[in-house]
Amino acid sequence: MSIPSGIKTTLLTLTWFPVLYSFSSHVFSPYQISGFSMTPTFNPGTETTTKDIVLVRKYNLKKPESLKRGDVILFRSPSDPEKVLTKRVVGLQGDTVKPKHPPYPKDETRVPRNHLWVEGDNSFHSVDSNNFGSISQGLVVGKVVTVIWPLSRFGTDVSKGGRDARKGYGDIPVKSIGDI
Amino acid sequence: MKVPESLKFLVSTVSWTLRAGCVAHLVHEYVYEFTETRGESMLPTLQSHHDYVHALKKYRLGRNLDIGDCIVAIKPSDPDHRVCKRITGMPGDAILIDPSSSSELTNTPAEILQHDGFNKYIVIPEGHVWCTGDNLCHSLDSRSYSVLPMGLITGKIVAANSMDKGIFGGGLWNFRWIQNTFFDEKEEAESIS
Question: pTM of this prediction?
Answer without folding.
Answer: 0.85
